[in-house]
Amino acid sequence: MAVANGRGDGVGLPQVKPGEVALRLDVRYPGTTFYTQAQGDDVTVAYLNRAFPATDKTITTSGFPELDGAPGGTLMTYGILAASMEEAGGDADLRHAEVCFVPSVSAVDILDFEKQEDLYAKVDDLDPDRSSLDAFLCSPTTTAHTLPTEELCTWLLDHFER
User: Fold this and answer.
1) Residue 118 and residue 126: Cα distance in Å, rounded?
2) What local confidence, expressed as pLDDT, does residue 162 receive?
3) pTM of the model
4) Distance of alpha carbon 55 from alpha carbon 115, whole angstroms
5) How far, in Å, are 57, 78, 136, 162 from residue 35 at the CA level?
6) What are phi and psi of 76, to 5 degrees?
7) How far apart are CA 105 and CA 65, in angstroms?
8) What is the distance between the terminal CA atoms of the chain, rounded to a whole angstrom?
9) What is the pLDDT of residues 96-117, one digit of tens each?
């Protein structure tokens, strides 16, 4: 059994577009920029810059799907980093505080998803045999990863009693 904090209707985070700036830092790490994941080869996901001692590095990925905006439980990934930098006296230009952390298709163990569009599968409409689980439920709304919503907890408790 499993529950997903992401939706099962194929709707992700439409405000999180691939390849956009998620967070830009200044002062201590001038110009350091984190981008939402885009598809492709040698896609820049971060530019890291440290003023002292001076160093910089561009981080790229290849062959990754556009995970950050996919349906799934969210994490305040960039929000946490921005708050940490601001607490340390830095400046943060935060554009996407939270992104998908665990895609719904992964949380409920949907088998054989390999393409970008598979991340947006309408899990609620899939044949249950597409999962290795005996039972699962996706949240009707996008919620934070591991958030124990009343609906998800009630469903789990009902299934534990069986």
Assistant:
1) 11
2) 66
3) 0.90
4) 36
5) 14, 10, 32, 45
6) -75, 50
7) 13
8) 12
9) 999 999 999 999 999 887 889 9
Contact call for residues 65 and 35 (beta carbons, < 8 A): no
Q: Percent helix, strand and coil across the chain, each rounded to 5?
A: 25, 30, 45
How many C-beta atoms lie closer than 10 Å to residue 141's C-beta? 12
DSSP E strands in 9-159: the ranges are 21-26, 33-35, 43-50, 55-61, 72-75, 91-94, 99-103, 136-139
The two three-digit tokens of residue 28, written as one number: 């201590």
The rounded distance, in Å, linking the Cα atoms of 27 and 50 is 9
Q: Which of 49, 18, 2, 1 is nearest to 119 (CA)?
A: 18
- Phi/psi at 134 (nearest 5 deg)? -75, -30
**Tokens read off for 124:** 């609620």
Centroid of chain to Cα 161: 32
Please name which of 31, 29, 13 lies closest in space to residue 98, comparing C-alpha atoms: 13
Determine the residue type at 118.
D
- Measure the CA–CA gap between 33 and 58, rounded to whole angstroms: 9
Q: Which of 76, 48, 46, 72 is nearest to 61 (CA)?
A: 46
